[in-house]
Amino acid sequence: MTGQFSPAFRDELAALMRWRRDVRRFRTDPVPEDLLARGLQAFTLAPSVGLSEPWRILRIDSPQARAACLANYRDCNAQALDGFDGDRSATYSRLKLSGMAEAPVHLAVFCDDATPKGAGLGAATMPETRAYSVVGAITHLWLALRAEGLGLGWVSILDQDRVRRDLDVPAGWRFIGFLCIGWPEEDDTVPELEKEGWETRAPALHLETR
Q1: Are strands 151-155 and 173-182 parallel, antiparallel or unpaired?
Q2: Domain around 55
Q3: What does the pLDDT look like over 34-69, one tens digit per residue?
Q4: Of 42, 156, 165, 196, which is most buried with the most CB atoms under 10 A?
Q5: Is 61 contained in some domain?
Q6: Residue range 163-183, pLDDT digits in tens
Q7: Tally of domains in the chain
Q8: Interatomic CA distance for residues 60 and 64, integer angstroms
């Protein structure tokens, strides 16, 4: 391999990115541990500022921890619904915005802002690049899981401080996202938000120049 890829590979990569959807509707079938471990190896290939690898990942398995995170989501989702009215409220109420009740695998992902690894290279002027690094690594994971036929749903309707308290994480860990992983009920390249008319995807990227 020279770093150049065939047109067929590029087409498959584009297809993989199209099929990478935010999954909220999961089957409850278990995910084989070897398959999950293979997907998580994507973190070892992800870029990070200063090679700091600031991601910290908790697997949420206990019924107590799962129940606490699900209650957090439900409370925040109810508050979010109160912020809309009319047609927006009706559309929001139809949306399924979390697969936490069904997905067999739950991961809570954090950024260790206090990590000594990387000695602060690249983060002195923009410390938020550590969090960006974690987001980039999650994208790697998303694609790796999709290539295995698995789906990932990123839950963002959560009280961050409550997550940190409920999961008892170190003070220097910043909450990035709660990830639900499992087998999708169905495969579709069209996001649910588009199907329900919440928003439309731009047909092409528009670049501005300066």
Answers
A1: antiparallel
A2: 22-186
A3: 999 999 999 999 999 999 999 999 999 999 999 999
A4: 42
A5: yes
A6: 999 999 999 999 999 999 999
A7: 1
A8: 9
